[in-house]
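Q: Could you fold this chain for me?
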Amino acid sequence: MPVWVLFSMGSLAAWGVGGFLRKQATAHISPWVIVVFQSLTVMLLATIAIVICGGPVITTEAVLLAIAGGSFQFLANISLAFSLARGPASIVVPVTSMYPVVTLVLAFLFLGETISAMQAIGLVCSAGALYAFSR
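A: Sure. Below is the predicted structure, expressed as structure tokens.
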């Protein structure tokens, strides 16, 4: 099994547990506070990882892309926190977890990546899942 599959499964598990924990946090603190503590934790752990693994090679393009990506991550995190504060985790988390569909379409449109027949079927199934979850 390729190592990227293991990392992907780790990400899946971490996102799932994180959504569950954030939903529980909404009973005690506001979505803004959740995002603050979540962001501080990410900064601390990322800093530790950089210290342990060695500093990155930094270019202007890499920094700008990281800032742009972080900005969208912030928007996603705050949207998720407010969604969890107002809706059931059993619906909010699966719907927001469909974000790879956006990545797949953007990669196809802007990076020249191909969409396989199986991925196209996945897109259709994802649309069906979004419809089913919204009911």
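A (continued): The chain has two domains: 3-87, 98-135.
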